[in-house]
Amino acid sequence: MTNNSTPGVPRTKPAEVRLDELMDAAQKLFIEKGFEATTVSDIVREAKVAKGTFYHYFNAKPEILSALRQRFSRHFVEQVQLAMDACDSDDWPTRLDVWCRASVNAYLAGIELHDLLFHDNYYHGHGNSERDRVLAQIIELLLSGKRHGAWQLERPELSAIILYHGMHGAVDNAMHNGITDRQATAQQLGEDLSLEFRRLLGC
After folding, report:
1. Which of 31-40, 62-71, 125-134 is the least confident region?
2. CA-wise closest residue to 200 among 164, 140, 153
3. Do residues 5 and 11 touch, judged by C-beta distance below 8 A?
4. Where are the domains of the chain?
């Protein structure tokens, strides 16, 4: 019997690849059509998989929306952390500057997806684990800077909330006012936020 399969090449895709393809398809369609207008049939057609594959991973459409939120926030934190890790380990004011710039960049780069995932009544009524993931990163930055004498903080958790919502509010306001050059806006807004947050922290 002749085996025509290529040695070392799996005949089926790994589960994590199929899951990513499903999520990518859903993400594309949600942005194009909206969450309510997109059906499970649309998603599996776009992903080129059987409907049973969808229900292997998700019980219903809202679950894939939740998975997309988790993926977005995970990637957001990873991008920002990668940028901060490129700084000198003991240069905490610069790490704060980089957090501002990288956060604005990551938010603006995916703002259409962000608004789809996070600006809805269902999300705001069902916990905020994705927000908590970002807040944990900010709190760690603030506490580490405090330990090394970069700034003094009485309530780091409150300061983290101010930084988190300040960054989001500034980007949302810029989008509301109209942006023609996202890259230039991200650069300027990141610098402006950094100056304001440095004043807040006294550094």
Report:
1. 125-134
2. 153
3. yes
4. 12-59, 68-201
Tokens read off for 162: 């101010």
Query: CATH fold of 12-59, please?
Result: Arc Repressor Mutant, subunit A (1.10.10)
Cα distance between residue 153 and residue 161, in whole Å? 13
Residue the block writes with tokens 């969808």: 54
Q: Model confidence at 18, in pLDDT bands (50, 70, 90)?
A: confident
Q: What pLDDT is attached to residue 89?
A: 86
Residue 8: phi and psi, rounded to 5, are: 85, -5
Q: How far apart are CA 200 and CA 152, in angstroms?
A: 10
Question: Is residue 55 scored above 60 in pLDDT?
Answer: yes
Q: What is the CA radius of gyration of the chain?
A: 21
φ, ψ of residue 6 in degrees (nearest 5): -80, 125
Mean pLDDT of the chain: 89
For the question of whether the overall pTM of this predicted structure is more than 0.70, the answer is: yes
Q: What is the largest CA-CA distance in the chain?
A: 76
Asked if the domains 12-59 and 68-201 are classified in one and the same CATH topology, the answer is no
Angle of helix 156-177 relative to helix 182-201, nearest 10 degrees, comes to 150
Contacts from 124-130 at CB under 8 Å and sequence distance 24+?
129/70, 130/69, 130/70, 130/72, 130/73
d(CA 1, CA 3): 7
CATH number attached to the domain at 68-201: 1.10.357.10
Question: What are the φ and ψ backbone dihedral angles of 26, each rounded to 5 degrees?
Answer: -60, -45
